[in-house]
Every structure is written in structure tokens, then in C-alpha cells.
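Example 3.2
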Amino acid sequence: MRIRDILRRKGDAVATVEPDATVRQLLAVLAEHNIGAAVVSPDGAAIAGIVTERDVVRRMHDRGAALLDQPVSDIMTTEVRTCGPADKVEDLRRTMTEQRFRHVPVLDDGRLAGIVSIGDVVKSAIDELESEREHLVDYIQRAP
């Protein structure tokens, strides 16, 4: 299975925030879309960084409520691991597990084309196992 297969099912919409958006604005986007991360992008196509709920919680502990009015660029991760639509889901699953990434933006020709979460990757694995199980049951039931 390829990353494009996940995007085909879930869609290619990506919640983005501009680097100068406040953390308060970020939280509104995360809550509105019921998601755990947003891509930081000045134009909706290029990636400047990624920011997660976890980033907010960790910085809130250090900086207190004043963090809410600071720009997202102060807390975002700038070294973003990405993947492409043709990449294998199995390879991404391994990378996400080993390097503890929970969200990976998808780039197609250098432009933001989607985002894959660890939940998407796990769901694809479950779907593959279910499909294999159905094929095996069908095969066994047809055996003489």
C-alpha cells in the first residue's frame, strides 16, 4: 500500500497556520478540525514547520499563559520529516514508530499534498489485515 492510497480514502485537506499566527489561533484551528497537529505554512503550499498539541503543552509548562499570544513560529518544529504519495506505508509506519513521529506531511513535487497521522497508518494496517483475512476465509470456504 502507498501513501496515495491513504490520502485517497481520507482526503488531502491539511490544516495550516501561518508562522505569525498566535498559539491561541493555532489552538482554535486544532479544536475546529479536531486534530493534533497543523502544518505551519506561509502560503498553504510550502512547509515552514509543524506544530502539535504536545508542543503547546510543553511550552505552556515553561512559559505559562503568555505563550497563547506568542507566534507559532516560536514553538514549531522546523526540521519536518515528510513523505511522498508513492512512498510505501510500511516504510512510513516503521519510521514513525522508530523516530516517534505522529504526523508526517505529504509533499508532491515540493508542494503540500496531504498529511498522514499515525492513526491513518495504523488504520491502513488493520484494513490490510482484514482484507487478507477475508481472502483466506473465502479460499478455505471454497476448498473441496
